[in-house]
Write a structure and sequence with these properties.
The protein has about 270 residues and is an alpha/beta fold. The protein has twelve helices and eight strands.
Length: about 270
């Protein structure tokens, strides 16, 4: 698929998900029907005390694979940018952690998600937040303007990850941090099988192999790259989805089992550049 086709599919899926939350108050797996395997990816990512004061629609619209705010080590007064902010859950959580002297930006290209996020901000009564329309390959912020970049299972959806990392590096202040949750692959997986498993994990996913992820971050200028698995996906977890796709889960297990995972990825922009 072309880059534009992928982008259009992502917009369509996430737009539908936002409308579903607005209409019925729940969603899962990029707008797919709820299944136990989908729930494995998106459920139980946030502690109850984190979400207790947030609008239900912010929690319901969470389509991520991790909780970057739990590990980003945010401090008061910092400026945070969430790439692909969706319904705004990570932006609202970040805004509370950086406090009134800090600021949290959310960047999303989907009108429906932006409308939902702004409504969630209104309901939450959080003022140190701004939601921006744009693409993560062309961040609409100045150079050296944010302390921390977070993202929740969105970078894997981009068809131009090199550009995403270059843009992230550009807008971070010297010494700034990248702290994202994303889908990562460890080892080689047959192309046809990889595509089907990625569809289960992230709808229109293009997960990088761990070594490629590290290399692309280093190429963009980042240092101190760390990849920490947070949730490893087993073939059995995806059996229902794979059966619908006409794929024998038992047959592909040796080449797939345990190779796809949600991971927390950290990196730093050097203090002097």
């Amino acid at each position: 698929m072309s880059d534009e086709t992928i982008k259009d599919l992502v917009k369509q899926k996430y737009g539908q998900a936002a409308l579903r939350v607005t209409a019925i108050g729940s969603t899962s797996c990029c707008g797919a029907s709820s299944t136990s395997s989908c729930d494995l990816v998106t459920s139980n990512l946030y502690a109850q005390d984190q979400t207790a004061e947030l609008p239900e629609t912010a929690v319901a619209a969470s389509l991520g694979c991790g909780n970057p705010t739990a590990l980003a080590e945010l401090t008061a007064g910092e400026t945070v940018l969430d790439l692909g902010s969706g319904g705004g859950i990570d932006v609202l959580l970040s805004a509370k952690r950086v406090g009134p002297s800090g600021k949290a930006y959310g960047l999303d290209m989907t009108d429906e998600m932006l409308a939902l996020a702004r409504e969630n901000q209104r309901k939450a009564g959080v003022t140190n937040v701004e939601f921006l329309k744009g693409e993560i390959e062309a961040i609409p912020l100045p150079d050296n303007s944010v302390n921390v970049i977070i993202s929740n299972c969105v970078i894997n959806l981009s068809a131009d990850k090199d550009r995403v990392f270059t843009e992230a590096f550009r807008v971070l202040k010297p010494g700034g941090r990248l702290a994202v949750s994303d889908v990562v692959v460890r080892g080689e997986v047959p192309a046809a099988i990889r595509r089907s498993v990625e569809l289960w994990i992230g709808c229109v996913a293009g997960a990088l192999e761990e070594g490629d992820y590290r290399a692309k971050l280093a190429k963009a200028g980042f240092e101190g790259v760390e990849v920490e698995p947070t949730r490893v996906y087993r073939t059995e977890d995806a059996r229902e989805f794979l059966d619908r796709e006409g794929i024998d889960a038992q047959a592909i297990a040796p080449s797939v089992d345990g190779k796809f995972m949600s991971a927390f990825v950290r990196a730093r922009k050097p203090s002097t550049v």
